[in-house]
Fold these 2 entries.
Entry 1:
Amino acid sequence: MGKKELQVAAIENGTVIDHIPANKTYEVAKLLRLHDLDAQVTIGYNLPSSKIGKKGIIKIANKFFTDEEISKLSVIAPKIILNIIRDYEVVEKKTVETPGELRGIVKCNNPKCITNNEPMQTIFNVIEKNKGILKCHYCDIEQDISEVELI
Ligand SMILES: [Zn+2]
């Protein structure tokens, strides 16, 4: 068994999230609310990657994410790949698609924005998917997806 296979092996059923930029590994875990799951979660950090230098891998046993959950990941790690594992085999590889709208996922960078001053959900329209430009639904300010903070 090669090195690469070793890294993604070892769960019977579940999801292996691969190619996470190393410094985003814990943000991915947070966004997917892995701490609330009753599943077996293994987090690998700073693993060598030929594609992105260093990467993180998260393995979650017996858990399959919805497309909506997966699309949220585009905010922090658009190039990740989700390997769907059944019976120790990768049966599907999913890539992340940036959704047209982000609800309640990231904070607005404008301190005067109503969403930063009232208890309410943020809404952003993704106006340029390729460049990752978001526009706040409430204050209309455009912001770069790499510069917004998760809620
Ligand atoms: Zn705003």
Note: The pocket of zinc ion is lined by residues 108, 110, 113, 115, 136, 138-139, 141 (CB under 6 Å).
Entry 2:
Amino acid sequence: MRAAMITALTGPDAVEVRERPEPVPGPDQVLVDVEHAGVTFPDVLQTRGRYQRRPDLPFTPGWEVSGVVRADAAGFRAGDRVAALPTTGGLAETVAVDGSMVFPLPDGVPSDRAAALPLNYLTAHFALVRRARLEAGERVLVHGAAGGLGAAACQLAAASGARVVAVVSTPEKAEVARAAGAHDVVPVDGFRDEVRRLTGGRGVDVVVDPVGGDRFPDSLRSLAREGRLLVLGFTGGEIPTVKVSRLLLTNTTVMGVASAELWADEPDLPGRQWRDLVPLIRSGAIAPPIGRVLPLQDAAAAIRELDERRAAGRVLVRVR
Ligand SMILES: NC(=O)c1ccc[n+]([C@@H]2O[C@H](COP(=O)([O-])OP(=O)(O)OC[C@H]3O[C@@H](n4cnc5c(N)ncnc54)[C@H](OP(=O)(O)O)[C@@H]3O)[C@@H](O)[C@H]2O)c1
């Protein structure tokens, strides 16, 4: 089969498409013939060895896919259309995935959108529902709102009855955030003043932060009393630090969110989360915004879109 492979830890340019043997599924694994694969920021980090998991070189990245089940396994039947979360190996014609990370697709969900669902929507669900315990009527600020995780958080928060303020860096990304359900969209520069204005000085209840970096202090200052800031990632590069005295007087909570680590401890959780999401997928309340779709041959260019901060909506690789 053909697969994209990280051949050196020097960035997306070292991603090559090569022939390699098909994976052999383990006892509880499902073999999926991939139609589309989602490109995510962890793929970018892996091209430089900056992600917490560092497989031996060369290896195939790729967290999430859509496709068709090859043979009966783990409760799935040959021919079932699925979305799946292999966490590695997805940028390939075929991938073996643990049965607990394979999800049946409702009828009518196109393969491109399906590939953009698993990682970011399950993570947004974990962040907003289980960690932040978001309630209808609360206000949520989302950084990187035209990115994969950001757009998923906008849609899920809006579908949960929250009022969503999106933070983005370009007008094109503002359009994507609006289409993903953001009620208000503000630019990165000066977002704190805009949040204050939009909330009548009160602030937001929850900040979804996949970016980190130098905007972190203003994110904390954008929170209302008893606000929760969800730490999801650091696309901005810098890992911020916080003086805990800043949390005390406003009863602020800063909480870490690491979905893959939790799924490893609770393998039945992703399936339960997926069942929560299915009605929203069916109704169209969650439908990932799609940006560029490139052929597998151009996997390096697809990863570069995220690395160079250009992606507006999901970048996907079309495999077949
Ligand atoms: N904790 C978890 O469980 C979990 C799960 C999945 C992903 N993540 C993390 O979440 C983060 C986002 O992932 P993603 O796949 O959504 O990425 P993405 O689609 O590339 O979106 C990231 C967003 O970050 C913003 N950004 C700010 N500075 C940037 C820079 N220097 N380079 C690139 N982007 C920059 C961009 O928005 P603007 O240009 O509008 O600022 C961009 O849209 C990553 O750190 C990833 O590792 C965490």
Note: Residues 220 and 241 are 11 Å apart (CA to CA).
